[in-house]
User: Fold these one by one.
Assistant:
Number 1:
Amino acid sequence: MTPKPPPAPTPMFRPYADAAAVQTIGGLSLENGPDVIAVHGSLDLTRDRVGLDRARALQAAITAIVEALSGSDLPDEAAAPVEKPGTVRNPFA
């Protein structure tokens, strides 16, 4: 049996840098945004090399988020974004 190659390196997650980047670790997704990072899904950290790789990737992402927040002048609490109602084209018309 041939040994499994190591996983490809995950590109550096740059928190709050854009509104398009998503980092996926196992079944967990970190969706980047200019004002918020949304975390969705679940992550199993198994007691093996895969679990270790996932734990390190999660640690790197969380560390990057904490560093980005620590280097900013932050309000006590961000205001909730207000979405203006809009008109949606009827797909059945």
Number 2:
Amino acid sequence: MNQIIQEKEAIGILLIDSTIPFLPGDMGNPETFSFPVKYKKVEGLTLAKMYEDKMAILPQLVIAGQQLMEQGDVRAITGNCGYLLLYQQELVKQLRVPVFTSSLLMLPLLEKMIDPSQQTIGIITAESFRLETSLLHAVNTTLDVVHIKGLEHKKHFSEAAIKETGMLDSQRLEQEVLEAANELIQEQPNISVLLLECSLLSPYSKALQEKTKRPVFDYVSLIHFVHDGLVKKQFPRF
């Protein structure tokens, strides 16, 4: 416990402007991590703004990222929406620290872990139509090696995450995520790895892993990977 208290926040997380509650397991909840993280909410940064006013929002993101770095020992920056991948290149150039805006950045590594002639990657996302264009191209991935299942047609997810009613029932949402994964695997049995694009889905990774018997990667997986590169554990010397 003392080690956690003394450790500074190496990871900075930009939060989009949302009313969705962050459950344990969600990257927006500090209890998710065994190490401290620093948060910065970007006022007015909504999904619609990201797509409709991309370049108008960029200066806000840059300023928020700079403020995170000025407030402590933040040495890498992420955000809690996979669609922030739209800003990956610009943020890397302007913030000059490691930036990882989306769990989709893991796709090139996951592709190398499978045999593409026999296996594919399943992606569960918030809205499937958004992944079929620029976002996949941004990580040099094509639809040849991935299969996508969106949650936009799942009733509770749509209400909680897209319409943002302010209510989130974790049991209902978990059931919808499991249903979506089952549908995806039934449609594409050669899926050998699952990747969760939406940061809200990380709390259900374990249930998904147990149900599908497949490796599951998410936003939290990526944060742990980057944090390990920034804050190495000291082992006893003999």
Number 3:
Amino acid sequence: MTDKNDRAQILAANEAFYRAFEQKDLKAMSLLWSQGTGSICIHPGRKALCGWQQIRTTWEKIFRSTESIEIDTEIINVEIGQQIAYILLLESVLQVSRGRKFKAQSMATNIFAKMAQKWYLVHHHGSPIMK
């Protein structure tokens, strides 16, 4: 059985992930992710990054090359187990990089693992939606 607060904590962690992304805040991003080698991040159209060090490096590059970013999300489904939870959602992204605007939509899955009574992001996978 999951704790009554788990859903609220997972949704808050998910929201914090997208706010750290929008604010290009590497410190906040670091606090959300599991620092282990088992963490995985797959940006839309990219190969899998395994382990926090690779994931951190890609966030640094994204933040450095992005002037601004806005992300709207629409949660499709939330599933919560005792130690693992996932959120399936639609991401709508508006990014400005080198003075150019880019709009994109992705289906994303964020997986969280409960460690020491806190939910950490262990997997983010964004898949582009082709129109």
